[in-house]
């Protein structure tokens, strides 16, 4: 396996749209933050310290040979081009922080891209598991299996009172960050989302954009995650998040039905106008493309469009990002050229889907 495989394969296994409630919940993610005992934490260490951590972890990779870590691949950030790192960020396989700022940063990736272990990010080790649909419990089960394999080979920084020690105080305890990525056009169109976000925050959860903290909710896609780990068990965190997510799913479905009952002609017009734009455009910016893809995705989920798979929409969400477009072009593109190439790619992909 090589870096090209991870870069050229647009549709990761976790984007296959086969999980529970996948019409609304695109993915479930579990992330475990861990640090090594007797090493300075990344927030204060030097380049030499980070090199020692990476070398230490490299030595244990041959021993990570059981399910689900068999055939895992190491990618070192300093050996990748900026464009290659951007593609990995767009596929949610690494964080923007690891791509831009880490010292001796690296990532261990599973072949199906469900598992990503970031090294020397904000913590020494960040285990990430991504699954399609609402599968937080299964994702945590896999993450714990990965964690157990690693812990057989290393000593973690752990305190009997506080739990796992992390660079950020909000991660101390279980080190668990659970999140779901949700497609919520109904709540946005009925203007309920702006009211819902403060309520979610009051429950100890946080709402972010498609690429996490500081990012925009492109295409009506939001990430919802727990904010605090200290004093809560893993089961408590998942119970609270699952409860809120299930309520949001119900509200999103109700919002879509309300729009269908009160404004069906306008809804159909919106869906098919967006499909027309995607099918015929010659220039399209990423923000407009994301909105049109969102409209078409809702049209598929609500039964208005029957000859396009929602998996194609998942694929195009990734393929139309700036990094992917430039990766396929073989190098950097001007913004205008990206917009032209994006439009051409969408047209061709939809043509193939509708004529297969």
What does this structure look like?
The protein is α+β, with helices and mostly antiparallel strands and 356 residues long. Helix content is 47%, strand content 15%. The chain contains twelve helices and ten strands. The strands form two sheets. The protein has an eight-stranded antiparallel β-sheet with strand order 2-3-4-5-1-8-10-9, with helices on one face. The chain has a two-stranded antiparallel ribbon with strand order 6-7. A hairpin with a 5-residue loop joins strand 4 and strand 5 (125-132). The mean pLDDT is 90.
Number of helices: 12
Order of helices and strands: HEHEHHEEEHEEEHHEEHHHHH
What profile does the largest beta sheet have?
Answer: 8 strands, antiparallel
Between the first and last Cα atoms, what is the distance in angstroms? 30 Å
Mean pLDDT: 90
Radius of gyration: 21 Å
The assembly state of the depicted protein chains is single chain
Cross-sheet strand order for the largest sheet: 2-3-4-5-1-8-10-9
What low-confidence regions span 5 or more consecutive residues with pLDDT below 50?
Answer: none
Number of strands: 10
* Strand content bin: 5-15%
Which structural category do the helix and sheet elements fall into?
A: alpha+beta
Q: Could you estimate the helical fraction of the residues in percent?
A: 40-55%
Question: How would the global form be characterised?
Answer: globular
Domain Phosphagen kinase C-terminal: 24-255
Protein name: Protein-arginine kinase
GO biological process, one term: phosphocreatine biosynthetic process
GO molecular function: ATP binding; creatine kinase activity; protein arginine kinase activity
């Amino acid at each position: 396996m090589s870096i090209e495989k991870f870069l050229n394969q647009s549709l990761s296994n976790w984007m296959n749209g086969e999980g529970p409630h996948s019409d609304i919940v695109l993915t479930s993610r579990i992330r475990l933050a861990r640090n090594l005992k007797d090493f300075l934490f990344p927030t204060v260490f030097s380049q030499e310290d980070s090199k020692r951590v990476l070398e230490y972890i490299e030595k244990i990779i041959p021993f990570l040979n059981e399910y689900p870590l068999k055939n895992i691949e190491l990618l070192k950030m300093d050996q990748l081009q900026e464009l290659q790192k951007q593609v990995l960020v767009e596929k949610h396989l690494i964080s923007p922080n690891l791509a831009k700022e880490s010292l001796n940063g690296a990532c261990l990736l599973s072949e199906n891209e469900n598992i990503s272990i970031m090294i020397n990010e904000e913590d020494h080790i960040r285990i990430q598991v991504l699954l399609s649909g609402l599968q937080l419990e299964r994702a945590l089960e896999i993450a714990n299996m990965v964690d157990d394999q690693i812990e057989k080979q290393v000593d973690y920084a752990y305190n009997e009172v506080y739990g796992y020690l992390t660079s950020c105080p909000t991660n101390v305890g279980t080190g668990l960050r659970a999140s779901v990525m949700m497609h919520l056009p109904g709540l946005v169109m009925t203007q309920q989302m702006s009211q819902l976000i403060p309520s979610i925050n009051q429950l100890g959860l946080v709402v972010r954009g498609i690429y996490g903290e500081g990012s925009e909710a492109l295409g009506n896609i939001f990430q919802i995650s727990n904010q605090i780990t200290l004093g809560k068990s893993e089961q408590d965190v998942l119970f609270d998040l699952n409860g809120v997510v299930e309520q949001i799913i119900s509200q999103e479905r109700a919002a879509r039905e309300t729009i269908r009952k009160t404004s069906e002609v306008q809804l159909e017009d919106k869906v098919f106008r967006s499909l027309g734009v995607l099918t015929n455009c010659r220039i399209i910016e990423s923000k407009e493309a994301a909105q049109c893809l969102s409209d078409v995705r809702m049209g598929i989920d609500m039964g208005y469009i029957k000859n396009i798979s929602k998996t194609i929409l998942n694929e195009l969400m990734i393929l139309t990002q700036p990094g992917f477009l430039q990766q396929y072009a073989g190098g950097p593109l001007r913004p205008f050229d990206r917009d032209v190439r994006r439009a051409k790619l969408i047209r061709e992909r939809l043509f193939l889907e509708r004529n297969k």
